[in-house]
C-alpha cells in the first residue's frame, strides 16, 4: 500500500510538520516522516494543520441558512420569541433542507462533529428530531452529530413534554436537554427530577440550557451538581450558557466552580454578544471543562453566525480578553479537543493510529488562526483524502 505523506505543513504551535497516512489512518506524524520510493508526497506549502473543529452547541432545526434572509423581530418576552419562531418556521423550507445547507457550510469550514439541540415538545412531537436524523444520515461519513432532545418551551409548564422527551430518547437521541428550571418552568426540582430521571433510566447524557440570572442561576448549578453526584453521572452532564457565572463575584464563582469540578460538569459558552458569560480561565483553573459552540445561527433568535467554529473561537477570545498566545490556544482547545471530549468523539486528533482527518488553512500557528479567523481557502482532509464539497 502506498503511503501518502503530507509535507511542508505547520503544527498548531508553529513548528514544521509532516503527516504520513496509510489506509486512511495516520501512520506517522512528526518533523520528518520516513518515506519510500513509492510514497506519494503532497506539499501543503507551509500551511497550518489543525484537528477538525467540534461545534459543541448548535440548533440545526432553527436556522434559515440556505433560505432567504429574515430580518430579526424584537420581542418583549421569551414566550413571544417562541411564538415568532413558530410563525417564521411555519413558512420556511423543510428542516431537512435547511439543516443540510448549514451542515454543508459548517463542513466546508472544517467542522467534524456537532452536538445539536433539537426542539421537542407536545406540539412538534418528534418531527424535528426525525428531520435532523434524516439530515444527519446524509452527512454520516463526514460529520458526527450528537442529538439533544431540547424542551425549548419548558418541561413542567408545557404539558406532555416529559413523555415526548422520553420518547425522543427511545427514538435515538443521545442527550436529554433542559431549560431554565426556575424562571421558565417555575419548579426547579420538578424539571430536574424529570430530566435526571429519564437520563438515569435511559442511560443518556444531560445538557441543560441555563440562562437564569445571578443567585437563581448559581442555585440551579448547585442543584444540578448535587443530582449529578447522587446519580454518579460525573462527566456526563453539561450546562450550556450558565450566564450567572459571569454575573456573580469571583469568590462566588470559585465556590460553585469547585462543585462543578467535583461533579465533572462541563460548561458550554458561545460568548454571546449582549450578556455576561462564564469566566473561561477561572473555570478551567478550577478544573472545570469548558467548551464552545455556535448556538443559534441566522434564526428567529438572532441574525448572526455562519457556522464557522474558528470564528466562534475568535469571539470567545475577543469577549474574554484573550491576548496572549496561551490564552488564544485555550479558545482553540474549546473549539476542538474540549468539545470532542464532551460529546465522546473518539478516533479524533492528530495522533498515530487515528483517522487521518484534519483542516488545512493559511496561518502561521493556532493562536494566529484564532485571532484572525480567515474563512477563505480552507481545505479539509478526511481519511487522507481532500474533501470536495458536492
Ligand atoms: Zn441553544
Q: Which key terms come to mind for this protein?
A:
single chain, 390 residues, alpha/beta, Urease, subunit C, domain 1, TIM Barrel, 2 domains, 22% strand, globular, binds zinc ion
What do you see in this structure?
The protein is built from twelve helices and 15 strands. The chain has two domains: 86 residues, Urease, subunit C, domain 1; 291 residues, Alpha-Beta Barrel (TIM Barrel). The model has no long low-confidence stretch (mean pLDDT 96). Helix content is 35%, strand content 22%. The strands form two sheets. The protein has an eight-stranded parallel beta sheet with strand order 5-6-7-8-9-10-11-12, sandwiched between helices. Strands 3-2-1-4-13-14-15 form a seven-stranded mixed beta sheet, covered by helices on one side. The protein is an alpha/beta fold and 390 residues long. The protein binds zinc ion. The site of zinc ion (ZN) has 6 residues, from loops. The site of zinc ion has 6 residues, from loops.
Amino acid at each position: 500500500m502506498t503511503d501518502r505523506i503530507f509535507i511542508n505543513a505547520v503544527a498548531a504551535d508553529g513548528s514544521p510538520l509532516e503527516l504520513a497516512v496509510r489506509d486512511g489512518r495516520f501512520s506517522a506524524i512528526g518533523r520528518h516522516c520516513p518515506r519510500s520510493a513509492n510514497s506519494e508526497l503532497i506539499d501543503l506549502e507551509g500551511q497550518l494543520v489543525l484537528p477538525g473543529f467540534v461545534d459543541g452547541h448548535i440548533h440545526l432545526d432553527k436556522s434559515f441558512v440556505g433560505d432567504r434572509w429574515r430580518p430579526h423581530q424584537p420581542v418583549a418576552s421569551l414566550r413571544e420569541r417562541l411564538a415568532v419562531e413558530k410563525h417564521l418556521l411555519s413558512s420556511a423550507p423543510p428542516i431537512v433542507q435547511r439543516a443540510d445547507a448549514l451542515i454543508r457550510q459548517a463542513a466546508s469550514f472544517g467542522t467534524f462533529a456537532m452536538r445539536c439541540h433539537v426542539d421537542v415538545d407536545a406540539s412538534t412531537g418528534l418531527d424535528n428530531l426525525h428531520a435532523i436524523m434524516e439530515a444527519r444520515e446524509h452527512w454520516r461519513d463526514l460529520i458526527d452529530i450528537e442529538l439533544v432532545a431540547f424542551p425549548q418551551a419548558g418541561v413542567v409548564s408545557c404539558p406532555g413534554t416529559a413523555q415526548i422527551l422520553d420518547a425522543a430518547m427511545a427514538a435515538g437521541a443521545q442527550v436529554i436537554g433542559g431549560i431554565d428550571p426556575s424562571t421558565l418552568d417555575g419548579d426547579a426540582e420538578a424539571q430536574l427530577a424529570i430530566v435526571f430521571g429519564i437520563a438515569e433510566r435511559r442511560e443518556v447524557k444531560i445538557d441543560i440550557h441555563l440562562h437564569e440570572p445571578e443567585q437563581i442561576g448559581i442555585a440551579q448549578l448547585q442543584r444540578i451538581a448535587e443530582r449529578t453526584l447522587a446519580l454518579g453521572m460525573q462527566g456526563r452532564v453539561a450546562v450550556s450558557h450558565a450566564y450567572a457565572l459571569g454575573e456573580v463575584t469571583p469568590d462566588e464563582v470559585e465556590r460553585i466552580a469547585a462543585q462543578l469540578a467535583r461533579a465533572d460538569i462541563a460548561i458550554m459558552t458561545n460568548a454571546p454578544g449582549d450578556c455576561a458569560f462564564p469566566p473561561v480561565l477561572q473555570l478551567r483553573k478550577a478544573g472545570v471543562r469548558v467548551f464552545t459552540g455556535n448556538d443559534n445561527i441566522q434564526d428567529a433568535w438572532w441574525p448572526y453566525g455562519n457556522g464557522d467554529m474558528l470564528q466562534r473561537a475568535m469571539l470567545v477570545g475577543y469577549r474574554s480578553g484573550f491576548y496572549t498566545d496561551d490564552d488564544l490556544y485555550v479558545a482553540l482547545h474549546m473549539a476542538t479537543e474540549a468539545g470532542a471530549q464532551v460529546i465522546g468523539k473518539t478516533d479524533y486528533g492528530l495522533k498515530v493510529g487515528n483517522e487521518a482527518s484534519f483542516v488545512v488553512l493559511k496561518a502561521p500557528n493556532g493562536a494566529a488562526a484564532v485571532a484572525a479567523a480567515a474563512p477563505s481557502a480552507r481545505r479539509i482532509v478526511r481519511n487522507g483524502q481532500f474533501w470536495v464539497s458536492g
